[in-house]
Predict the 3D structure of the following.
Amino acid sequence: MIGIRFQTALAQVTFCGALLTGSAAMGATLSLDAVDQGWYRNDGSHTPSNLNTLTGRLSNGREYRSWYGFDLTADPDDGDSQETALSQADAGRITAATLVFAAGNGLARSQDQSETLEFYDVTADKTQLRAGQGGLAAFDDLGNGRQYGSVEYATVGNTLRAVNEISVTLDAEALEDLNASLATGEAQFYVGAVLSSLSSQQRSEYLWAWSRLTPAVQLNLEIAPVPLPAGLPLLAGALGGLWLVRRKRLRTGAACT
């Protein structure tokens, strides 16, 4: 009976060790669609029913900045290797993040060779932001603060053209805020976008004019594997050694009889 219990315990430890070792050896990917998006104009206005993400400036001098919000605890899509939704316990496991803006969503225009698109944290109250009550403070916030990354977008020629897919890798500040959002249980991640390369002339320079797609962007996350408990391999090894010793003794005893 003692031998059976010992072998059962060894099997359980070995099984758990194999599961955890497999988990530790493999990371996961998770793609989240934006659940919130919109723009603010440089007069502090926003129309809540308008999900357009126009970013830049029109020839009338009006500048627009956009935002995008994500729910970090949303259920993974079928194609993701992350099998379950993230939770507060996953804080610290996000190791990389990329924003991917869909191709063909609205039009771009600029006389310059390229425009610089920058991304920032959003500290404005999210309820007021969505309701159009953020005012000039919200407009300023979307283009200031902790910078999450930037990308150069080619805009050669002063003709309207469909916006190509835009992909930008977010930096360490974004990863820090992503993990912090999970740790606090807020689980919201918002990004503000601004064209920082606008010329001094009052002319059209913009992305995503007349955009209609919802969601306009996807957030791709790399999730680190669950770390293997430090003592488990040692425990499994010790039990395995004891089992081998016991097996040898049993064989020796059987040979003597």
Observations:
- The two ends are 21 Å apart (CA to CA).
- The mean pLDDT is 86.
- The CA atoms of residues 126 and 181 lie 14 Å apart.
- The longest helix spans residues 231-256.
